Amino acid sequence: MRSTRRLGIFLGALLAVFSKGGEAEDWYQFRGPSGDGHITEKNVPTTWGGFFEKPVWKTVVPGRGWSSPIVVANRIWLTSSEQLALSDQAVEQKLASRPFGSTDFQTHASVVLFAVELDADTGEILRRIDLFSIENPPPIHSMNSYASPTPITDGLRVYCHFGSLGTACIDIESGKVLWRREFKIEEITGGGASPVLWDNHLFVPFDGSDEQYLVALDKMTGQTKWKSARPPIDTTSDSHRRAFSTPLLVDFDGRIQLISAAAQWLVSYNPEDGREWWRAKVGDGHALVPRPVFQNGSIFVCTGYSKPQMVAIKVNGSGDVTESAILWRSSRQVPEIASPIIVGREIYFVSAMGVATCLDTETGVLVWQHRMGGTHASSPSYSDGRIYFTSQEGITTVIRPGLVYSEIAKNELFGETLASLAVYQGMFLLRTDPNLYCLKRVSLE
Q1: Confidence tier at 53 by pLDDT (50, 70, 90)
Q2: Can the peptide bond before residue 34 be classed as cis, meaning omega within 30 degrees of 0?
Q3: CB 3.0-4.6 Å disulfide test: which of 10, 51, 234, 408 passes with 398?
């Protein structure tokens, strides 16, 4: 029976890879199939949660992590971690020796990093696959987790990334770990960027205080295909050399570009060999987390701490395009963590302190601004005339895109969340601490 069920999963994954229908339904990476939060399915939920509406299912996820769920066929994958605590005295001693300070940090004696597979129809946990066991792990920011990057799948394998703590590939049919790699850098606050797949390449950025580069691994073997150093970073502070942004693949005017945000720079790479197509110095920002978004030949990037800007850049250049390709800048409540989303001619985003903003993508002119409330780290999603913003407090605000702020609903779940929404057959998957919820449409709108 077990082998028959595994064969069914395997065939379902193959169907998902090779059929357009499966490709549209599978939520196989951070921010969905297009990597920008757009949902192709219609009639996804608008209202849910609270005391009275029961979810389709709710499952306690073992351990702790802020990776968002992904879906292949009818299986959900996410990553998590289990920590062994240190004594209060040991924690104090370990943090006191840090060169970067100890405020708002956590540390542990050891950590086990693992992947979890769930049945998307029932929420049943099917497998837990341990990937790394780390003794004396480096401290991380208390807002972060040891399992924050979102995994990615090609339908046959799942790739799980934990920043400098390791990257691993799992065969979906057997559950066998096919390979593991580790790239040691000083992240200071823990990992954040998610991996990206293209052809037989797995791309992972490593932007630490000590080293900054983008690496391409062979997705079958884990061997390094190429490694490209970041452009020179103009700063005297090592902590200002870091970045945690997930790259974006862009196909424009016959050229496939892997566009990756680093400290101070946005860089476009040839995904085949790691050569630069172009680079633009976007400012003095660092530790940026938001993933760039793309539309009509322009890429839009947030520049990170401590004074984030939104910068629009043309993608058809070559070499250093700092002086020629930047179209506009805006510093109006730009997010440090949550990614933006584009709908129509407008770009929408929400700051960490809950101020929502809409700008014109072509000019950067402010369309509207509204205090939505809450603390925001999750990236928004869009479907069928609705934009979804989820706060750290578990409240999802649903608005209509347009030239005025128009709120449709507010939905509350119980539990903190920094993860972003995923979709399965018209239902939302939302990870909180400690639950994973499956949410369906509960009322006529």
Answers
A1: confident
A2: no
A3: 408
